[in-house]
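Troubleshooting: if your tokenizer reports a length mismatch, compare against these two reference records.
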Amino acid sequence: MRLTVLGSAASFAGPGQACAGHLLEAGGARVLLDCGNGVLANLGRVADPLSLDAVFVSHDHPDHFLDLYSLQALLRYAPAGPAAPLPLFVPEGLFERMACVLSERGAAELAAAFVPHVLAHGEPHSLAGLTITPRTVDHTAHSFALVAACGDGTLCYTSDTAPGPTALRAAAGCDLLLAEATLPQPYAGRAPHLTARQAGELARDAGAGALVLTHVWATNDRAEALAEARAVFGGPVSIATEFDTYEVPGASATTEGND
């Protein structure tokens, strides 16, 4: 499996960043894990968006799905004509709510661009040699970690989650833990998110092979976040930057300036 970071920021993007989005390529499949604002432009730098096999959206916060509207336009108005509808895996009710802000014509275009599927805890979805299984985590009413498996490699993307047993069960034994690290440590517990230290604790307790911090608040001190995670997790730790790539298993990284 090859993971490419397309968006590493939480809620709003800092200069040169995008919000939540990661490209996963494995087993002949190419999928997006979340599609937040700015992700589509970054995807176009590394892959043809028309080559996607599916998009998975972890939960219903806009910084995880806003660029689906842009992707819809790209699919429906491709140079060679409308592309085949793209499988879209979303929490219950999200696709219908997305259509509510559109005109009647816009809603019809959205419906023509995607084939929606509802995520359910523990229900796997296979695409070529890649299997992605959603696991409920503690954030919104319908929030999921996404656990990807191909061959002997496993990746767990926590999406947004509070610390606790649901996140731990999702991450157990993964080769690469792609964990949110939204909050600075002084804000621990103020919102259903992880700090970098809590992400490190999750990686340690789950027995993860390596840890990548993502969904980082744009004004957080990234060097401090790395140090906090490394203080509690003895494996390799890095912090996601747009266009970094990771190979799973092994979690070897090609980065743009990160440790």
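Reference record two:
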Amino acid sequence: MSELHDECGVFGIYKNDSETDIVEETYLSLYAIQHRGQVGAGIAVNNEGKIKYYKDFGMIPEALPEKELARLGNGKIALGHVKYSSGEAVDHENLAPLVMRYIKGQLAICMNGALTNYQDLRDDLTQGAAIFQSNGDTEVIAYLIARARIRAASIEEAVRTAVAQLKGAYAIVLMSPSNLIGVRDPRGIRPLCIGKFGDSYVLASESCVFDSMGGEFIRDVEPGEMVVIDEEGLHSYQGERAEKTALCLFEYVYFSRPDSVVDGVSVNLARQRAGKLLARQHPVEADLVCGVPDCGIAAAIGYSMESGIRYATGLVKNKYIGRAFNNRKRNTEYLMRIKLNALKHDVEGKRVIVIDDSILKGKTSRHIVELLRAAGAKEVHMRIASPMFRNTCYLNSDTTPKEDLIASTKSVEEICEYIGADSLGFLSSESLPEIAKECHLDFCDACFTGNYPLDVSNTSRVDKYSKKIK
């Protein structure tokens, strides 16, 4: 159970039949990517060029009530978005999809990722008299598209002109009056894939969406590629592709759902491999292995398979606390107590190996060790299915400052003492790519190694206009 906030989730569908309830399919599909964001959700529907939308705070049932969805109609194209869990307050204007009116009608857009040149782009647009309603990347991208469309012959040309100015990590889904468009950054840092539901095309952050719809996975959007879906079908435009791609390895470690396949690799299989590698690199005598729900479970199964030590549930997660967990007025320790509990029957009197996906600040790991000891565990050995998280991720929807990362200032031994475990082991940086060895892309492991795939020296998430940190 990482302390890193989830990514955003994006979804788009172009309907090619008369039977599909496009709002219903979008609504249900957002459940498949709910894990990528729990602060807010939104849906926008295009009906003959007119876009209606609704978005609000909370988990999907709370954010998208049936009475509001009924007002959206049953159009030809729809977008859906789930918003990440931010450490800062999120204004309603920062929820997505963002819908705006420009020279050629309406435009709706949503994204997953972060721009490293956000502030420079915004400053430039502001000098050109742009007036911003939010402090997010999405509005900057929308303005760039609107500005490019003045001279561009088509929306496709305008989008290509706009994204050529972007630096950072992004998966963008947008709709014009007649098209559904998806774009992936030149390094492929953020995932985006294509599926079909009957005769309708679908874009989504993860392939598990297509399974939940009863559809089929077609392929991943390639780094630098723009795909356009219209009444004639799917069209591909390959833009600039970086010489060295850089898919975020944390998609396999934490972000993605275990039943997704990201760029050719099963997330569940990747996590099991991480557990097997951990067992080889950090063996210890114990009575059982358990995983921290949810992302530590597959790695714990892999550790058990490799070591021969029995797997047990050990820890149980409360999955129904919803938005209350994001209420920052609550005491953090109290929130962790209601989110996780130890199974005394499993761990009492036992030497326990507990597997988690990562350690950021260390507070959650310390709480887990305390839970297991309080339930009667004789020994608690913690194993982490990723390397030491030492560096800020500037390419994520929400970042943790380096000074707050425990591994940036403490050794393994000091972290072990802080969390109160009997032993602690991390997966080695060198072996991490092995968990997704079939992937046809290179990886970004900057959070572990500090080797960023692009220049982040001028990156600033400080918005001087709203005085907020995104």
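Descriptive notes for reference record two:
- The two ends are 23 Å apart (CA to CA).
- The CA atoms of residues 195 and 217 lie 4 Å apart.
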